[in-house]
Design goal:
Blueprint lengths: L1 E5 L8 E8 L6 E7 L4 H17 L11 E9 L30 H14 L9 E11 L13 E8 L6
Parallel strand pairs: 4-5
Antiparallel strand pairs: 1-6, 2-3, 4-6
Length: 167
């Protein structure tokens, strides 16, 4: 399965404690935890919608099961016009050079929020089935050095069963 998601990728952040509430099912008190990253909900919704659209293209779709590999190539905002803070001071710098976004958002947290959305869309039975990343990366929008870097923020996601070709 291959899907393209448009919009600003958002990381799965930490949760903030907001008190307790009564759990209707168990009758016990449980903690109320709220996502701290504001953009994660819209990002998950976009991934979910793109996954559902891809699933509809396969009549009789069944969620992927067994060992799964994934490629997740995230495209983030356009690169800044100024020298990154991590760039060595004694190395030539120009805004016309191409470099990778070695700053927030964290790549692993982008993958985590995307995995959660794929799970709710039933692209796979469980994100625990994901055993390998073929390509997990982030690029700036419009980066000409990689064919999967989109012209605008978003992501290209490919899911493979390890016993065959992409579905």
């Amino acid at each position: 399965m291959t899907l393209v998601v448009h919009g600003d990728p958002a990381p799965q952040g930490s949760k903030a404690y907001k008190g307790h509430r009564l759990n209707a099912k168990s009758g016990r008190m449980s903690a109320v935890l709220v996502e701290q990253v504001k953009g994660v909900k819209p990002w998950r919704q976009r991934v979910h919608a793109a996954a559902l659209a891809a699933i509809r293209a396969y009549p009789g779709w069944q969620p992927l099961d067994g060992p799964i590999a994934a490629d997740m190539i995230f495209t983030v905002r356009t690169k800044p016009d100024s020298r990154p803070v991590w760039w060595p001071r004694d190395t030539r710098w120009s805004k016309h050079l191409h470099w990778r976004p070695a700053s927030a958002p964290d790549l692993s947290k982008l993958a985590r929020s995307t995995e959660d959305a794929l799970t709710t869309a039933r692209a796979w039975k469980d994100d625990a089935r994901l055993v390998e990343y073929g390509h997990l990366a982030k690029y700036y929008a419009g980066d000409p050095t990689h064919p999967d870097a989109l012209p605008e923020p978003g992501a290209i996601i490919r899911l493979y069963t390890l016993t065959g070709a992409p579905r």
